Amino acid sequence: MQARGRSAPRRGWSGGGGRWLVWVGRAVLWAIIIVIVVNGVRAPIERFTQGEQPGQVTAQPTGLGFPEAEAAAFAGQFATAYLNFDGAKPDDRAERLQPFLPEGAERQFGWNGFGRMSTGGIQLSGVEVTDAQNAVVTVLAQSGPQRWKLSIPVYYADHRFVVSGQPALLPAGDPAGLPQAAEPERDDVTESELRPQLEGFFKAFALGDATQLQRFVVQGTTLDGFGGKVTLAELKTVIAPPGGTSREVTAVVVWAVPTSASPAPEATSTDPTAQSAGLEQAYRLSMEKQGDNWYVKSIRGATRSVG
C-alpha cells in the first residue's frame, strides 16, 4: 500500500534525459567550431613557414652594405686610366694608374708597354656585390668603332677603394637586329597642307623667338626653342596619317649646326671643318587643325626612323 499523501515514485528521469542530450549537442557543436577556427588559423601559418624552408626561392639582400655608387665612380676613373695608353709615353699611364692599385702592384698592371689605345664614353653597366667589402664593377667603353665591357674587381675598407685584381676585358655585343617597320598610311593632301606650316614652325623653333612661335602653336602652348644655336637647313620629310582634326605627324628635318672649331690660318672656304654641320633629326608632333590652319600642340622625338 502506498503511504498516505505521497504519490508513487515515477520510473526513469523526469526531463533529465532531454537536458543531457542538449548539453552533449552543445559540446559537439563547440568542438566543430574549434576545429574550424584552428584549421583556418593554421593554414596561412603553414603557407608562410613553408616559404622559408630550404629549397624555396626567397628574396636576398643585394647591397650587403657595399657602397655601389661610389665604387662605380671609382671603377669608371680606373677604366679611363687603364684603357688609354701610348707606347711612346708609358710612364703617363703608370702615373694615372697609381692611385687605383694596391701597394706592390706592377706599374703597368699587365700592359706590355707597346701599342696605342684611345678609349672614351665610360659608362656603368652593373655592380655584382660579393659582401660588404668586395664587388665586381662592370663598365662600358668605346675605342674607335669597338665597344667593350671591362669588369673590375674592387675592394672597400675604411671609406677607401682599391682595385683588388686584374680586370677582364669583354665584348659589349653587336647592335640588335631591328625588324623592318611597315610602311605607314599617309594622307598626301594633309601633308601638302602641313609642309609650309611646319617649315615656318621649325624656323621659329630654331630661332627660339616666343612671339614667332605663337603663330604656329596651339593657343596656350609654350615651347622652348634653340635660341639661334641651330638653323633649319631643310624640312626633308612630312608624314601625316589619315584622321580628323588631331593628328600625330612625323617630320624629318636637317639642322645646320655652326662649327666650333677655330679655322686654321691656311683654311679655305672649302675646308670641311669651317662649314656648318648638318644633322638629320626625326620628330613627332601632335597637331590640331583650327579653321584652315594646322597648329603644333607638342613636339618630341620620333619612335622609329622614317625615310
Please provide the count of β strands: 11
Please give the CATH architecture of the domain at 68-171.
Answer: Roll
Question: Residue ranges: pLDDT <50 for 5 or more in a row?
Answer: 1-15, 48-62
Outline, from the CA principal axes? flat
Radius of gyration: 40 Å
Largest sheet: 5 strands, antiparallel
| Name of the level-1 CATH class of the domain at 68-171 | Alpha Beta
Average pLDDT, rounded to a whole number, is: 84
The proportion of residues in beta strands is 25-35%
SS summary, helix count: 5
Distance between the termini: 128 Å
Task: Characterize the quaternary organization of these chains.
Answer: single chain
Protein structure class: alpha+beta
Order of helices and strands: HHEHEEEEEEHHEEEE
User: CATH topology of the domain at 68-171, anyone?
Assistant: Nuclear Transport Factor 2, Chain: A
Measured as a percent range, the helix fraction is 25-40%
Give a brief rundown of this model.
With 307 residues, the chain is an alpha+beta fold. It is built from five helices and eleven strands. The strands form three sheets. Strands 3, 4, 5, 6 and 7 form a five-stranded antiparallel β-sheet that branches. It has a four-stranded antiparallel β-sheet with strand order 8-9-10-11, with helices on one face.
